[in-house]
Amino acid sequence: MIWAISIFFMFMKKKIKLLFVLGLILLALSSCNTTPGKFDRVMTSIAGTGNLKHYIRPTEIRSVNYAKDKAYALIDFSYQKNNQDYVSDAYTNFSINYKNSDFVESSSFILDTEEDAETVKLFEITTFDRDSSRGYIRIGTILKKDDVGKVLKLLSMKKAKLRIVFVNKDVLIFEASDDLVESIKMAFQR
Predict the structure, then answer these.
(1) Would strands 72-82 and 52-63 be described as parallel, antiparallel, or unpaired?
(2) How far is 188 from 190, CA to CA, in rounded Å?
(3) What is the CA radius of gyration of the chain?
(4) Domain count along the chain
(5) Which residues form the domain of 93?
(6) Are residues 8 and 91 in the same domain?
(7) Residue 22 shares a structural domain with residue 111
(8) pLDDT tens across 118-167, in order?
(9) Do residues 43 and 21 both lie within one domain?
(10) How many whole angstroms separate alpha carbon 37 and alpha carbon 74?
(11) Could you give the 3-state DSSP secondary structure of residue 140?
């Protein structure tokens, strides 16, 4: 194969060689693009247990009072399924951008079910990163296996909200964005 390319180059004119090389370079650069696109919002892989591992990439959600407080968060989910069954707790992480410099005391999802409002608590709150000068905090939590399907389904219908309580008792409530709804629906299809 290499000898064929060498012979090809020997007979090409200088300008054509230059265009050909530039074309190859552009092709190489465009194939190295790693920016997540519309179809990269959800990653799936086989876990060591043989279950399908889902990762819903960080997606922006905004405070219900965004016009006033400018608070937003990036939320992501990682969980495992065996066919339609959720077989693991979901790591539910969020990066909050808000003027508060305090730590998170508790977090939960408020579900608007047909019966009434239900609260699903998030467990094992861990601070991964914090920069109080920028109003930034990254939190890791656990959503219990029995609640994963219900929470994701209601988020995809915009019938669930994330509630964050800070140590100083400030409360933020975040709504599902259209992007989060689309990402969750993509995860359901896999």
Answers:
(1) antiparallel
(2) 5
(3) 23
(4) 2
(5) 38-188
(6) no
(7) no
(8) 899 999 999 999 998 888 999 999 999 999 999 999 999 999 999 999 99
(9) no
(10) 16
(11) strand
